[in-house]
Amino acid sequence: MRPEHIGAFAIHVLTASGAALALVALILATGGHWTMMFACLGLALVVDGIDGPLARALHVKDVLPRWDGAGLDFVVDFTTYVFVPAYAVAASGLMPDGFGVPAAALIVVTGALYFADRNMKTDDNYFRGFPAVWNVIAFYLYVLMPPPWIAAAAIVALAALTFVPIRFVHPLRVRHLRWLNIALMALWAALALIAILANLEPGPYVVAGLSVIALYFLGAGLLRRAD
User: Fold this and answer.
1) What is the mean pLDDT of the chain?
2) Residues 68, 70, 73, 75: is their CA dihedral positive or negative?
3) How confident is the model at residue 226 (pLDDT cuts 50, 70, 90)?
4) Going along the chain, which residue ranges are E strands?
5) C-alpha–C-alpha distance, residues 155 and 125, integer Å
6) Which of 147, 120, 149 lies closest to 133 in space, CA to CA?
7) What average pLDDT does the segment 67-96 reach?
8) Is there a contact between 92 and 104 (Cβ–Cβ < 8 Å)?
9) Cβ neighbours, 10 Å, residue 101
């Protein structure tokens, strides 16, 4: 193999490492180690954020056409964004009695359908419908610890929004206010790290910051005209 082949395949291995992180996260979750589970899912987010730019920089699609990077990314993203968080929701005790497993089933079914949607993104790189970032939703549930009926209502509402043609911001690819989106995403990552280091029990300022950023990204998409 030529050096460019080795470099391109290394990017595929980097992407696939997200599946290993998902496996470790699931093992940790089965033991109730929620903080470490979210740490693994956070590392998977980092991998997901850097593998695409690296793949484009190294022209991986052209160098190694045998492997479908987009398909690989979808497989890994489903495990880290949907499957493991669904288990965390089912086993969290945050749902009303008897609703944990149905909520998790709702997450994986709607998440699978969303990942199969060929129109999941608009021409200007907004997500069309709720983008199945259940890892983020599960993280907020564990940090905020809302009453069970509110947590359940949020799951149902977001699952329904999967099929509604409203826009959600892609923090890295949407050009409108990209500098602000990236800055807020970086701040969110810092606050999320603080929350993890605090065993998912950060102070009110961290919780307030995470909440404001979430409301911004929700509103930034909703205020854009739906197509």
Assistant:
1) 92
2) negative
3) very low
4) 127-128, 167-168
5) 25
6) 120
7) 94
8) no
9) 14
The answer to whether 66 touches 1, Cβ cutoff 8 Å, is no
Q: What tens digit of pLDDT does each residue of 15-47 get? A: 999 999 999 999 999 999 999 999 999 999 999
Residues 42, 192 contacting (CB under 8 angstroms):
yes
- Polymer length in residues for the chain: 227
Q: Give CA–CA dist 148/141, Å, rounded.
A: 10
Structure tokens at 9: 């395949």
Q: Nearest CA to 86 among 132, 131, 121, 40?
A: 132
The CA–CA distances, whole Å, from 86 to 23, 155, 219 equal: 13, 10, 25
Q: What is d(CA 99, CA 137) in angstroms, rounded to the nearest whole number? A: 17
Residue keyed to tokens 């999941």? 120
What the block records as the tokens of 205 is 């300022």
Structure tokens at 82: 């949907």
For residue 202, the surrounding DSSP H or E stretch is none
Q: pTM, whole model, 2 decimals?
A: 0.92
Residue 167's DSSP bridge partners are 128
Q: Looking at the predicted structure, is the pLDDT value of residue 205 above 90?
A: yes
The SS3 call for residue 168 is strand
* pLDDT digit string, tens, across residues 54-75: 988 888 888 888 888 889 999 9
